[in-house]
Structure formats: C-alpha cells, structure tokens
C-alpha cells in the first residue's frame, strides 16, 4: 500500500491475556509517556535546558473503563502478572489503489493494579467502573512491526525497531 492516509480505528477489543474482556466501555485512553529529565546549566551556557534520560519514564498509568461493575473489575485488581492486550483494526485510505485498507494494531500492557473506582449507581445508567494499572511493560506493534517496547524492570527500550539501550546494558 503506497500513499496511505491514516483515517481511524475501525474496531477494537480488549483481552486479559487471551480472554476477551466483555463490558469494556467504548473508549480506552492510552497512557502518556513522559521521559524523566534533569535541568542542565553551567559555565559557558546561556541558561539551561532539560536533558531527558532515554528509557527512564515517570509513572505510567492506564485506566480500563467498564460500562458496569462486573467480576472482571475485581479480577484485574489481583496482581497475577497478566497482560492486557488491545487489538485494533486501523483504517487507511490507499490513494494509489483507491480503496480502504486495514492495518493491525496490538498494544500489550503489563503492570500492577493501582486502583479500582467502583463508579456510581443510578437507574438506567452505566456505573462507569474503572481499573487503574501502573504500567511496567508496554509494547506497541503495527502489522507485526515493533514501534515501541518499554520494559521498565529489564532495561528494554526499543523505538521503531531500534534498541536504544543496548549500549547502556553492555556498559553496565
């Protein structure tokens, strides 16, 4: 496919390892990644700048929202080292071929349960239950290509297929 115009997510599902998490709400907000940094200043410099440390990120959290309170919310609260996997079909328009094409997106997350917001009870409405996970491992793949792999506990930081911490691991 040449000259694709990325359009939207066509459909997605959320899995707890291999079992589909039924009841997840229509939208899952993906985590924000913010590199840890330190201000650098000194003689011969005009001011300061923030120097990020590759592979070192602040706390990364992700919420898994459910329409209603179910046993799955409590299951995610147990720390069993399971993965959360989001699988999506992303739609693009192929300018050269003149048609709609789909690209696979897979996001794998492992972490520690951090919170369970039970939500609210009201007749005829959703409870808006939310599980919050402290993300320790994150992998983003598109059509099988690794775009990002971050493993905070094993010093793995791969971006667009390049291992950015290989030299660091060899030195220590």
Gist?
This is Phage tail protein. This protein has 172 residues and is mainly beta.
Walk me through what this model shows.
This protein has 2 helices and 11 strands; from the N terminus they run βββββαββββββα. The chain has 172 residues and is mainly beta. The protein has one domain. Strands 1, 2, 5, 6, 7, 8, 9, 10 and 11 form a 9-stranded antiparallel β-sheet that branches. A two-stranded antiparallel sheet has the order 3-4. The longest helix has 7 residues. It is globular.
Helix and strand content put the structural class at mainly beta
Order of helices and strands: EEEEEHEEEEEEH
Instruction: Classify the oligomer.
Output: single chain
User: Can you count the helices?
Assistant: 2
Largest sheet, in brief, is: 9 strands, antiparallel
Which spans have pLDDT < 50 for at least 5 consecutive residues? none
Please give a handful of descriptors for the protein shown.
single chain; 8% helix; mainly beta; nine-stranded antiparallel sheet; 2 helices; globular; 11 strands; two-stranded antiparallel sheet; Phage tail protein; 172 residues
Question: Layout of helices and strands, plus pairs?
Answer:
Layout: E1 4-16, E2 19-20, E3 35-41, E4 48-57, E5 61-66, H1 71-77, E6 83-94, E7 99-117, E8 129-142, E9 145-151, E10 156-159, E11 162-163, H2 166-171
Antiparallel strand pairs: 1-2, 1-6, 3-4, 5-8, 6-7, 7-8, 8-9, 9-10, 10-11
Protein name: Phage tail protein
Pfam family, one: Phage_tube
Organism: Lysinibacillus telephonicus
